[in-house]
Amino acid sequence: MSNSNAVENVSGHCLCGGVRYEAAAVRRQLVQCHCEMCRRAVGGVWQATQALREDLAIKDDGCLAWYRSSGKARRGFCDKCGASLFFDHDDRPTMGIAAGTIDQPSGLELAANIHIDDAADYEVISDDVPDFRDGQHGIAYP
Ligand SMILES: [Zn+2]
Ligand SMILES: [Zn+2]
User: How many Å lie between the centroid of ligand 2 and the Cα of residue 119?
Assistant: First the structure.
């Protein structure tokens, strides 16, 4: 894939290194989700990109666990170090990947804030990128 909306040959891992992954390509646009579910799941704003499932190879030492956080999605985390890594929506061809687990330099670019109505009272939402009240940021990928 050669696509300006993509960063190619990305790798990443959790804090302890028990879960590692490589992606042939991920979406360049990083989205920050301010919803309450993400906040409680990761302890802050969920900053994520996406990869097509066929582009993503996960190497797991046996500590990758999944929490079904809603009827439509599950969240992947390391049950050794507690890091949040993945958001897996049943109806999407892509897997959400926590930007903070991607090796630097990531090449990602902050592109949108979503669910800003649910932001915690201490959050400062930058005016530099578009804000959306719901999850519909409209960024297509691939
Ligand atoms: Zn870990
Ligand atoms: Zn969210």
Answer: 10
| pLDDT tens digits along 45-77 | 999 999 999 999 999 999 999 999 999 999 999
User: Can you give the residue ranges of every domain in the chain?
Assistant: 7-118
The verdict on domain 7-118 having CATH code 2.170.150.70 is yes
Cα separation, 105 vs 122, in Å, equals 28
**Scanning the structure block, which residue is given the tokens 């290194």?**
17
What's the half-sphere exposure (Cβ side, CA atoms, 13 Å) at 133?
0
Tokens (6 digits) for 10: 């990305």
Q: Give backbone dihedrals phi and psi of 98, rounded to 5 degrees, phi first.
A: -65, 120
CA of 12 to the centre of ligand 1 (A): 11
Q: What is the mean pLDDT of residues 1-18?
A: 89
pLDDT surpassing 50 at residue 1: no
Q: Measure 74 CA to ligand 1 centroid, in angstroms.
A: 18
pLDDT above 70 covers what percent of the chain?
98
Ligand 2 is an ion; its neighbours by CB within 5 Å are 33, 35, 38
